[in-house]
Amino acid sequence: xxxxxxxxRRARWAVTWLGVAVVAGAGVLASVTLGGDAGERVVAVxxxxxxxLALGAPWAWRRPAAPVTASAAQLDAAAEALAHLVGEQxxxxxxxxRLFEPWPLPIVWTARQDVxxxxxxxxxxxxxxxxxxAVAAAWAGSxxxxxxxxxxxxxxxxxxxxxxxxxxxxxxxxxxVPVLVSATGFRPESETxxxxxxxxxxxxxxxxxxxxxxxxxxAEDLLAAHRVVPVIDGLDELPAPRLEAALRALVVAGxxxxxxxxxxxxxxxxxxxxxxxxxxxxxxxxxxxxxVTDAIRLLTYAxxxxxxxxxxxxxxxxxxxxxxxxxxLARPLGVTLVRSLYAHGRGDPATLLDRDxxxxxxxxxxxxxxxxxxxxxxxxxxxxxxMRHRDPExxxxxxxxxxxxxxxxxxxxxxxxxxxxxxxLTCSRLAVRALAGAITGLMILPTVVRVSEQWAAxxxxxxxxxxxxxxxxxxxxxxxxxxxxxxxxxxxxSRSGALRTMLPAVGVASLAPMVVVLVEHLLFMGLSPLVxxxxxxxxxAYYVGLVLPVVVVVGLPVMPAEPRxxxxxxxxxxxxxxxxxxxxxxxGALVAVVIQLGSMAVYCLxxxxxxxxxxxxxxxxxxxxxxxxTVAGLLAAAAWWYERPGGxxxxxxxxxxxxxxxxxxxxxxxxxxxxxxxxxxxxxxxxPMAAHLDAQDITRKLLTDWLTTFGPTxxxxxxxxxxxxxxxxxxxxxxxxxxxxxxxxxxxxxxHRLGVLRQAGAxxxxxxxxxxxxxxxxxxxx
Length: 782
Fold this sequence. Notes:
By secondary structure, the protein is mainly α. The chain is built from 32 helices and ten strands. Strand 5 (about 230-235), helix 10 and strand 6 form a beta-alpha-beta unit. Helix 3 crosses helix 6, helix 17 (about 390-410) packs across helix 32 and helix 21 packs across helix 23.
């Protein structure tokens, strides 16, 4: 450690000890002035000193800022881990799509170049490359390593992009890691290509978020060092204005030296490139039609039971090459559809040659698309009778609804956390906040009435206006907290999880119940201005102390853009132990100081008569901050530890929702306990409430508050910070109306296994964009 670093740490410790001395001196002076028991004065002063020391110690002992970029060893480790994950992920997906069974469909790609561009890319015009492995070899031998795959719908671009990704992983000449991503989530109006790709890497491969192993910005560092080859598929699936903006962003904001592969439809890419220019230093490949002989040969070997039928079809196609079936089989999409419908000898493929039924290729393709889903589910029902979602008609109805919603939103990605945007019940912030306030009011009403009656018996006030004010204050607080948390997060997204953001958000939200109580005091109580100020300050301190332990552990109750990720892992625990201790100390100290100040405002100063020290002050100050700070600090460290590795190595829909649900259920339990800590401390002797309750009553009240009042409120705050409850509400709404199944994830997993859907990270897509469009636009009359 350098001299400057040591000097900065000494200066921070000096400031901390100076703060302890000042606060302790002020406490001694106040205790002598206000009077009271000597023992209580000592405890109060020591509590203040310890709280200031606990709050200043993490700041004084903090480490220098971590390096912004990863080291060379960390980059190598990140690239090696990413290559392993990419290979495992897309090998499994290729198997499910049957891309290598019995062999890859041979698609010939031909170079299409502008004049003189061959000298830059090293790929001459007219050169033909058969299959993805040949394309990968050409890309690896190109000095620019930038490629555009163009073709019409169903020409095999997506399959080639996947096969190219696996081929590049196996090529020893390629030191970069190819990563296949879908372009549908790219928002060029709000993010650069590098920012979008880094976000996708973190979402699809949560393991890269392990800052201890790979550095704090592993995804950004890999892209900046050109250690990743983005293979961007489905650029044409963006709306036309966004497609042009995305291509312009790749041209203007993208690094022309960075390796890149882009797949897009020919017409859409050509139109966009005419307005903003094509990708610089990139070769362009276009596919040739699949020869009918190759298609028939693959279909024959893929279906041994129907070889004779396919040989008869081949003879008729050779005799009549103008058959619509020949045009359909010229595209990989047509081969896939025909193979799915007539696998294992189911039906006679000769019916596809009937020109009365199918006068042109478009009519035949529509028939194949309409029969695709029922055929797969009928075959699955026969092969796996116990499969839950085996009814073809019902499955097709669900898939039509999904495709219609995706088409309506102009995307091909079905992300489970976006299901909340499909219904006003969960997409409207106003509705969510109103529902949260109503639930809080219903939960707290019985307890408030009971407590208000007890308090009125002590103080001699009318309990009805007290109960009404408390219920209204509680109903307004949670919507106000949701509003302020959303505002603070939108204002500073990078600091949404910082402790310095949580305290202002909770403090501003506490002004809503303070206003309600202030109005109640003005109307029904004659208080002096000084006592009024102290009372309202106590209200704010009470609500802040009530909720701050919850948000410190589970985060601000903001509807997240993406699900949270995490997993318990003790790998590299020595490196993470210091961070966990600092998180525990800082979170615990913040909670302890805030609750200590709140306890002093509520219990140390009387709300009636002259301002003086109450006899219950010392106990409240000593107990409440200690309990809440210790527990909140430990749980905050546990939450930090859980989310530090970033989640499972590869993201998938099931893993993503399971991780988010596990994290939120644990957070809900923690929230229900944390929000009760300060309330539990107020029931300990010698507080006024404890004087009227025995041990059995205190136990009963704590359980009642945990199960019916404060506990559900804390759980509600914790659940508001996750995607899972919004998804569950939306899923329940669509299941009740019969638009989606009750077990949605199981249905989607079956559809993926059958080949109707494909999986890209944590999202599902229809296997073909043409299939999604057909299901969305054809009405269901059943």
